[in-house]
């Protein structure tokens, strides 16, 4: 069985411009495929930017034809991508992660814990299933989900050994949030991959610094700052190797 290669896409979203963001996501998928990535994680609401006032008009569903080129690109590359977008759930508008499978499929994961000020327009979601990877099981967390120790603990109890966090983190929040992710990893024995925006979005001056923490809480690799890049980690036996690769897409 081959070992997975994971990447956090530290992308830049143009506010409300789904067409442009889909195009840049395609370019990131191409770059990730060239690096041998099998799982590609984007930040929270990456396809639209973190724009709550625009979210209702930008909501997507798995069958949306606008997603077809991106879904086909993931299938052709043999990788799974997790992209962020608002979705219409059974109880209202939710913050979603669309899981674009290497088999061409698309399913939805929704944010369970909202930040103050996100409701309205958003309502809490119900999460989703674990991601099955070669030799690993991954659990998704969308930003504030990861601020709840119970969320990470529940993921571990379900059998996850990898915590995948799509985030919107600014300068004031990064020290505490990154420390908590390291604590999740150390306390639960579960590796953590976090993808943050590489530029301001929705009024947040995101600092980038997407990162990967090993199961002992040690930060193996992190982006040096903001700006577009891929944080790539490769599993080799019981060990991980990591690097930060610049992206010249934007």
TrEMBL record:
Residues 4-239 form the CN hydrolase domain. InterPro entries: Aliph_Amidase/BUP (IPR050345), C-N_Hydrolase (IPR003010), C-N_Hydrolase_sf (IPR036526). Keywords: Hydrolase. GO terms for molecular function: N-carbamoylputrescine amidase activity. It holds the Pfam family CN_hydrolase. One of its GO terms (biological process) is putrescine biosynthetic process from arginine. This is Carbon-nitrogen hydrolase. It comes from Pseudomonas oryzihabitans. The lineage of its organism: Bacteria, Pseudomonadati, Pseudomonadota, Gammaproteobacteria, Pseudomonadales.
């Amino acid at each position: 069985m081959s070992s997975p290669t994971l990447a956090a896409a530290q992308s830049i979203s143009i506010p409300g411009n789904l067409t442009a963001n889909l195009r840049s996501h395609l370019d990131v998928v191409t770059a990730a495929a060239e690096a041998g990535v099998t799982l590609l994680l984007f930040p929270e609401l990456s396809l639209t930017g973190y724009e709550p006032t625009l979210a209702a008009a930008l909501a997507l569903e798995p069958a949306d034809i606008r997603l077809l080129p991106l879904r086909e690109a993931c299938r052709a590359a043999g990788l799974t991508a997790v992209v962020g977008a608002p979705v219409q759930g059974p109880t209202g508008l939710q913050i979603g992660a669309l899981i674009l499978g290497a088999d061409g499929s698309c399913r939805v994961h929704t944010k369970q814990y909202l930040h103050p000020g996100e409701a309205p327009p958003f309502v809490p979601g119900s999460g989703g299933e674990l991601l099955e990877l070669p030799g690993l099981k991954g659990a998704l967390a969308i930003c504030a989900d990861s601020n709840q120790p119970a969320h990470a603990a529940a993921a571990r109890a379900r059998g996850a050994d990898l915590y995948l966090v799509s985030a919107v983190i600014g300068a004031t929040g990064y020290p505490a949030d990154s420390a908590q992710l390291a604590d999740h990893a150390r306390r639960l024995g579960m590796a953590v991959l976090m993808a943050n925006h590489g530029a301001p979005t929705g009024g947040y001056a995101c600092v980038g610094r997407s990162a990967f923490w090993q199961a002992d809480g040690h930060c193996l690799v992190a982006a040096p700052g903001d700006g577009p890049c891929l944080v790539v980690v490769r599993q080799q036996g019981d060990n991980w190797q990591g690097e930060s690769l610049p992206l010249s897409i934007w």
